[in-house]
């Protein structure tokens, strides 16, 4: 029993160390640090069971042409994003501020780049599915994003321009 716990601790430390070192980069040559969501330090094996990570094309299929609503783990309120099929994006944060930009899939990540006044660097993250619910994770960033609804079209009539 003790040996099994030690092996699990060592594996968790190894994965967390790899996540901290690789992280998701904010440039075109970034790497994917999405492993961290599968083995957070406090999560038990039940959390990892049946978690499916989405690759770039699966992420596009999930959000392209859709309105996505959800919440951040560290901020109260709801965000709303519309991902236009042509790669444009409008995002309304929980505080009501709207930001525009573009989105694209890259390797196994999904990336957005906001127009000024937000910093112009590429923000990449990964989508995950467990039991029909979706979430995303950005290493080194805001952390988890829980998605509550994905609705076809621009149902909130968010202005792209």
Describe what this molecule looks like in 3D:
This protein has 161 residues and is an alpha+beta fold. It has a single domain, classed as Lipocalin (Beta Barrel). 20% of the residues lie in helices and 39% in strands. The chain has three helices and nine strands. The protein has helices at residues 2-22, 45-48, 56-63; strands at residues 51-53, 66-72, 75-83, 88-92, 98-106, 109-114, 123-130, 133-138, 143-152. Strands 2-3-4-5-6-7-8-9 form an eight-stranded antiparallel beta barrel. Strand 6 (109-114) and strand 7 form a beta hairpin. The radius of gyration is 17 Å and the shape is globular. 21% of the residues are buried. Mean pLDDT is 73; it is low at 1-47.
CATH architecture: Beta Barrel
Radius of gyration: 17 Å
Overall shape: it is: globular
Q: Looking at CATH, which topology would you report?
A: Lipocalin
Q: In the CATH hierarchy, what is the class?
A: Mainly Beta
Number of helices: 3
Mind summarizing the main beta sheet? Answer: 8 strands, antiparallel, barrel
**Elements, N to C (H/E):** HHEHEEEEEEEE
- SS-based class: alpha+beta
| Mean of residue pLDDT values | 73
The end-to-end span amounts to 59 Å
* Fraction of helical residues: 10-25%
Total strand segments:
9
- Please indicate the count of domains: 1
Strand arrangement in the largest pleated sheet: 2-3-4-5-6-7-8-9
